[in-house]
Design a protein that fits this description.
Elements (H helix, E strand, L loop, with lengths): L1 H25 L6 H8 L4 E6 L2 E9 L7 E4 L10 H7 L4 E5 L17 H15 L4 E6 L1 H12 L4 E7 L13 H6 L2 H7 L5 H10 L9 H11 L4 H11 L16 E6 L9 H8 L3 E6 L6 H4 L1 H14 L3
């Protein structure tokens, strides 16, 4: 009996030592925003005082554009997700994008409020700061939810919508990125504040691509680095608690502006079948499906997806 007890004690000690080693190996402290700015800003980056935050924003392209477009990223992403689109659009259009509160270089909201209504209010604050009365508003995933919620709450400010695999309606995922699972699990989300294996980020990004082989080391580096921005990991857990799909679903039919809905048919996070619900409920909307793309089609294939946006824009009165 004594031998068996010694064996179990030794086994427990070895497990504890192994766990301690893993914690040390994967401990990633928060990184100050000034450090991250050195790598993740460029000449177009600016930081504007919005709702007590220094919001990271880029405002590019033609100032003669009568209908500027504002593009909103999804959960755990950043304004960089639209790089490919902006490169194709800025010669003729004014394109504005920013790191939403809780993400990217903007970081957490001072009051830790991440409701969809608050995100919509931030959109309006940005428009007011830039002196823009009305815009074309686009967004992916969470950003898509914020975009159409803004059109419902502030219809006088949004004249067209572009929704890319948008959230906001109730859904069941076929597969959830590992990082999202951790952020929604009470014990693990506490651990994530200081521990962040790079493979968690890599798996999470690969999960939202239709073709995971397109996920490069540089892309994972960006998502990993910006996740470690001071305060972002805690903000992610709060965002999942506060911004749930379905809260405004009954108001979707209030939208009657020209709307382009883009969806990757390999999206395993938000079912592509929801595209028909959006098309049905939004008057004057049209859907384009991409059979090989996933949850972030604009990032996976910026050229192919932005071509659909250009076609949509060409149909609008200028």
């Amino acid at each position: 009996m004594f031998r068996i007890l010694k064996f179990f004690v030794a086994a427990i000690l070895l497990i504890c030592l192994a766990l301690a080693g893993l914690l040390v190996a994967y401990t990633v402290p928060d990184r100050p925003v000034d450090e991250l700015k050195l790598r993740w800003t460029n000449a177009a980056s600016q930081f504007v005082d919005i709702e007590g935050m220094q919001l990271h924003l880029r405002d590019e392209g033609s100032r003669d554009d009568p209908m500027p477009m504002v593009l909103l990223h999804g959960t755990s992403a950043s304004l960089h997700t639209w790089d490919g689109w902006v490169d194709e659009l800025k010669a003729q259009h004014r394109v504005i994008r920013y790191d939403m509160p809780g993400f990217g270089l903007t970081g957490p909201a001072p009051d830790s409020v991440y409701s969809v209504e608050r995100y919509a209010k931030t959109v309006i604050a940005v428009l007011d700061e830039l002196g823009i009365e009305e815009c074309l508003l686009g967004g992916n995933s969470l950003g898509g939810y914020v975009a159409w919620a803004t059109a419902v709450l502030y219809p006088e400010r949004v004249k067209q919508l572009v929704l890319v695999d948008p959230s906001g309606l109730p859904f069941e995922s076929q597969s959830i990125p590992l990082g999202f699972k951790i952020a929604q699990t009470p014990i693990l989300k506490e651990l994530m504040k200081g521990v962040l294996p790079r493979f968690v980020i890599q798996q999470s990004v690969e999960n939202v691509f239709g073709d995971p082989s397109l996920v490069t080391a540089e892309l994972v580096d960006r998502y990993f680095a910006l996740t470690t921005r001071a305060g972002n990991r805690l903000a992610l857990a709060e965002r999942f608690k506060q911004t749930q799909p379905g809260a405004m679903a009954t108001r979707l039919q209030e939208i009657d502006i020209p709307t382009l809905i883009l969806w990757g048919e390999q999206d395993r996070l938000i079912p592509p079948a929801l595209a028909s619900r959006f098309e049905h409920d939004i008057t004057n909307s049209q859907v384009v499906l991409f059979d090989k793309l996933g949850h972030v089609p604009h990032e996976e294939d910026p050229i192919g997806t932005v071509a659909m946006l250009k076609g949509f824009l060409s149909q609008l009165p200028r």
